[in-house]
Amino acid sequence: MPHSAEFETGLPVAGTAVVLRDAPEGMQALLLLRPDRGSFAGSWVFPGGRVESDDLGDDEIERARAAAVRETAEEAGIRIRDLVTISCWEPPHEVPKRIRTWFFLAEEDGDEVRVNPGEIERAVWTTPEGALRLQAEGELLLWPPTWVTLHGLLPHRTVADARAALGTPEMRRTRILETADGRVFLWEGDEHHPEHPGGPGARNRIATGRLPWTYERG
C-alpha cells in the first residue's frame, strides 16, 4: 500500500465503492448514471464521494472507506460489506477540481437498489465485458479510472475470483499526453510519465483518441 508520504498534499479525499455481485451470466458491477450537470456529468460511475466530517477513521484510507459506504447508501440505497482497498487515483494537473480518490472492492448485501433522485439518474448491474462493449460502441460515457477498473475485472468470473487476485493497492497519478492520434492517459511506469517513468518502451496508458479505447501495460 502506498505510504502517506507518497501522496500529494493539499488534495481533498474521496472514497469509491466498486460493488460486485455474482450472477448467472458472470460477475456484475454496479454502475450509476450521473445527471447531465455537475461532477462527471452524463457519465456512468461507481458509487462514491468526498470524505465528510462524520466519516470517521484512524487515517485517510479508513475515512475514505467510510465515505464509500455512506455514499453508496445515499446514492444507491444499499448496504455494502467487506471493503478492500484496490487503488488510489490522483487526477492530472490540468483538472481544475482535483480530488484524490480511493477505490474499494465491495460486495452488496442483498438490498434492492433505489437511486437518489436528482443525484443519480439510473443504476445498472452489468458485467465488466458488457460495460466496456457499450462504451466502445459509444453508448456509455466512462472516465478512465472507471474504465481501467472494469478492464482489470475482465479475467474474473466470480467475486471470489476477483478478491483472490487482489494484490498491493496501486497508486495511479494520472498524467496526460497529447498525441497526433488523440489524448493518452499515463500512469506510473510508462516511459513518458514525467515523475515516475519506466524504461524505454514501457507502457501503462490508455489511448482515448478513438473508440474502442486501448490499454497498454508492460
Automatic annotation (TrEMBL):
Pfam families: NUDIX. This is NUDIX hydrolase. It comes from the Bacteria. Residues 11-148 form the Nudix hydrolase domain. The lineage of its organism: Bacteria, Bacillati, Actinomycetota, Actinomycetes, Micrococcales. PROSITE patterns: NUDIX. Its cofactor is Mg(2+); Mn(2+). It comes from Microbacterium bovistercoris. Keywords: Hydrolase, Magnesium, Manganese, Metal-binding. The keyword Glycosyltransferase does not apply. InterPro entries: NUDIX_hydrolase-like_dom_sf (IPR015797), NUDIX_hydrolase_dom (IPR000086), NUDT19 (IPR039121). The keyword Hydrolase applies. GO terms for molecular function: hydrolase activity, acting on acid anhydrides, in phosphorus-containing anhydrides; metal ion binding.
